[in-house]
Design brief:
This protein has five helices and eight strands, in the order E-H-E-H-H-E-E-H-E-H-E-E-E. With 205 residues, the chain is of the alpha/beta class. Strand 7 and strand 8 form a beta hairpin. The two termini are 23 Å apart.
Length: 205
Amino acid sequence: MATITATESITLDGVMQAPGGPDEDRRGGFDHGGWAQPFASDEQLAIMGEGMAATRAMLFGRRTYDAVVGHWLSAPEPNPFGGFLRAIPKWVASRSGAPLAHPASTLLPGEAVDTVARLRGEVDGVISILGSGELVRALHAAGLIDRFVLLVHPITLGSGARLFGDGPRRDLELQRADSTSTGVTILQLAVRGTGARATEPGAMP
């Protein structure tokens, strides 16, 4: 059975929307896109690189797949993630049957909770999710997220989509905490009751 890790950049008030750039996600009139960029650091890349080595596959919602994978595969080389994202198997949970634009990609059509539950039971190793807030909220409510890697940034925005919405109680266990010179705290947390093992590393940001 796979271990599913969700890696998320969030603010102190829990906002996860559009950390990477101003036009990443303007839904709801959100105009703070790119808020995470001033806090990027070499320490963060090094810590997240440890998780990249352990990741066996990626899982995305359709919007994040198009935005994130598309960005890094079109960015000038060398870049930190282009080669990794090009080669690693990628599953995309989507109700749309539209073709996937990037290599090593497989569509998971239908309801995400059902398709991801089957996938989790059929493969081994660490499956990592980046962003994909709607997908993560649904999987977390269904008990399908084993671990979170949260990059907590020292900023509040007061608006924007938050990582955790309404849902059942979940207890989490802190496995590791790191901090960077820019004030980002990186927390690895196992969700209790899912079977995640404390020895498994996290995932890339």
